[in-house]
Glucose-6-phosphate isomerase
Amino acid sequence: MASLSGLCSSSPSLKPKTPLLKTTINSTPLKTSLAFPTRSRLEPIQSIAREISSDLSETNDKLPSKPKQGLTKDPTALWRRYVDWLYQHKELGLYLDVSRMGFNDEFVRDMEPRLQKAFKDMEELEKGAIANPDEGRMVGHYWLRNSSLAPNSFLKTQIDSTLDAVCKFAEEVVSGEIKPPSSPEGRFTQILSVGIGGSALGPQFVAEALAPDNPPLKIRFIDNTDPAGIDHQIAQLGPELASTLVIVISKSGGTPETRNGLLEVQKAFRDAGLEFAKQGVAITQENSLLDNAARIEGWLARFPMFDWVGGRTSEMSAVGLLPAALQGIDIREMLAGASLMDEANRITVLRDNPAAMLALCWYWASDGIGSKDMVVLPYKDSLLLFSRYLQQLVMESIGKEFDLDGNRVNQGLTVYGNKGSTDQHAYIQQLREGVHNFFVTFIEVLRDRPPGHDWELEPGVTCGDYLFGMLQGTRSALYANDRESITVTVQEVTPRSVGALVALYERAVGIYASLININAYHQPGVEAGKKAAGEVLALQKRVLAVLNEASCKEPVEPLTLEEVAERCHAEEDVEMIYKIVAHMAANDRALIAEGSCGSPRSIKVFLGECNVDDSYA
Ligand SMILES: O=P(O)(O)OC[C@H]1O[C@H](O)[C@H](O)[C@@H](O)[C@@H]1O
């Protein structure tokens, strides 16, 4: 867990970077694929897959080879394939069509042992196994929508009581029973959610997908440490800051961006003469720095985040449920949708298990090594953020350097996309005709708009028919050019279907991770960037101390970058010192006495004011 002050107190000097380790898997595709013209890349990918397969063979069954073949274009065969493979979840009204993926029976047969192992792994995980071995943690997001699955009664009670507390608090806020102390409206009208990554993406997706046109509380987000972005959110609130419920979300309670967002918001409250604690809510692990601060300062409410729920799978915890409930979204329906989907995904027969079908398709398309990207295209504006949400869920889970046996595998599955038909006017040209490095997942919503509002904008055709036509047309056009696609269809965008979609992809990630033998539940790579950021800020403090000392002299002594570096005992970091100085100069916190930032060697720099307390030292 990062500490609140950790960003600025890391190691005192920037270490020279060690060169990146070259790996077999990294270098092989480069070498091999360079020998082939672009259109013939399938073969090298297969050979890489085979190579990796032999690496994994000690712990896994032999990797099924992907037969080289074109996609069938025979309409009768395609229709048969469509009907044979169509998955339907009757109660959820959800369909999964994998007919436009080119896998064959042999591949499915070969994958069966791995799938059965994945089902077993998921069963163990749900029973409370330490499925995240590196962090020694259980992985329990599935219990959140069916607490009776929790491995002990203590966890069950925690889940149930948190859900009850979320519902009660939301009801009291919406009804005005809990009110802000000094708002003329007499009730909370806005939510300002402060959080990042898994503590933002789920709530953002769900708000966009499900919030009614006029929610009881409108939501906005601070999900970065960009001061201009923060100012914008606060300025947009204007006088309504007095009726804003600020929800600070951080599992660890120590993420620097979230800490900064909180400090900025607290300052805005002070500037407006408002008492933050009366309007602040914390969602975090018990006894985290955030939790302790909220308790000591007497914030309006605190809700727990559980150790065994990862940030990117926290949408069904208080993280996602509280903001949703405050916007008038039926969270019990979301949970019901997720729970129904989970039940289906426990079935150990491939064709009856939509998450397994997805995972199998991912494996097929990307050779189990991420050789193709997943383009997610919901044809529905309200699902715009689904691909962004999935980007973290999939890429932070799957993008791993090592497998569970410690082999370097550099795994991943790249996800991107926005929405159709809009993206047809942006990059679908490349998908149809350009580099063949992707497969598509269409998300189709059958209901165009609420009943009673539709009209024909030309004889026999509605606006929604166009959207439908665009999706079907793009799917066909891509397939005609051998571009594979999956289609997930839901009847409507409802709390139930959104809950089901979240659960579908959470499980697909879990199953896929098992198929490729990686830990989907940790994120060791994220720490490197955070640590480096801490080192930059530590260096900045030393630069400030050196500049301050020189600027307190009579007369002021402007310094070259080399002089600053030397006095910081960080000669090897002169480039970073240049960047620090340029950034401070752009923000009027350092003054350039001579030269210009365009020619770094010419610069002489000093501080406009001498800080006599020398608080930088
Ligand atoms: O919820 P927090 O502890 O503030 O973490 C927020 C995010 O930060 C990290 O960088 C992780 O990579 C994410 O998985 C996490 O969701």
Notes: The chain has a mean pLDDT of 90. Residues 196-199, 250-252, 255, 258, 311-312, 396, 523, 526 surround 6-O-phosphono-alpha-D-glucopyranose (CB under 6 Å). The chain has 19 helices and 16 strands. The first strand starts at residue 87 and ends at 89.
